[in-house]
Design a protein that fits this description.
Elements lengths: L23 H9 L7 H11 L8 H14 L2 H9 L4 H18 L3 H13 L18 H14 L3 H21 L5 H23 L1
Length: 206
């Protein structure tokens, strides 16, 4: 849930964060255990709407998100809670996991080199036309991560899911092509297989 330093980029087309919000009364009732269970799915949807670019929210919105997160026991528990709610919350949780992994792999020289080698054989992987820059470098995966967050924040969850699936396809293909002696790329291939399945399942219900 935390962008690595420098991973976030400003955007000209983002919808202003103050047009999104968490209902204050709903948040407070959830935190003190008095929220009607029938209202919890709506709260999960509100959290899913603000979470992808939560760093850019207004201070009041950040405070409400923090209240929900702390009540649940931290960021991991927040994602697990979102995953229990089908539709946008579940899809968002699984995409947030992917974007965190993409940011982490941006710092893995072996992974970056595997992606360069993959693009030497397939310059424009399917579904990533217009997304990938001509050259692959340490910023490539974090740029994709940010774009997924941005699409979610702008309320285009199916577009975000399609980009995520194209990205997991590319990374697992790159892992298969990489030298077997590279432990980072081997792990990446396994993770991408798992995430591709999870995101596919969540996306069909969003």
């Amino acid at each position: 849930m935390h962008r690595r330093p420098g991973a976030s980029r400003p955007t000209r087309h983002r919808v202003g964060p103050d047009t999104f919000g968490l209902d204050e009364e709903r948040v407070l009732r959830f935190a003190d255990g008095t929220l009607d269970p029938a209202q919890e799915p709506r709260l999960a949807e509100e959290v899913a709407e603000v979470l992808p670019l939560g760093w850019s929210l207004s201070p009041r919105a950040k405070e409400r998100l923090y209240t929900v997160t702390e009540h649940l026991g931290g960021e991991l528990r927040l994602l697990e809670w979102l995953d229990r709610h089908p539709g946008l919350p579940r899809l968002t949780a699984r995409l947030v996991v992917l974007t965190g992994i993409l940011d982490r792999y941006s710092d893995d020289a072996g992974v970056v080199e595997a992606l360069r080698s993959s693009r030497a054989e397939e310059p424009l992987p399917a579904g990533l036309e217009g997304v990938l820059p001509p050259e692959t470098d340490e910023e490539t995966l974090s740029d994709i991560s940010y774009r997924i967050d941005e699409l979610l924040f702008e309320r285009h969850p199916q577009d975000a899911a399609r980009l995520a699936l194209a990205t997991t396809d590319w990374l697992r293909s790159a892992a298969r092509r990489a030298a077997p002696s590279s432990p980072g790329t081997g792990e990446m291939g396994d993770l991408m297989d798992h995430l591709h399945k999870d995101i596919s399942e969540a996306g069909t219900a969003a």
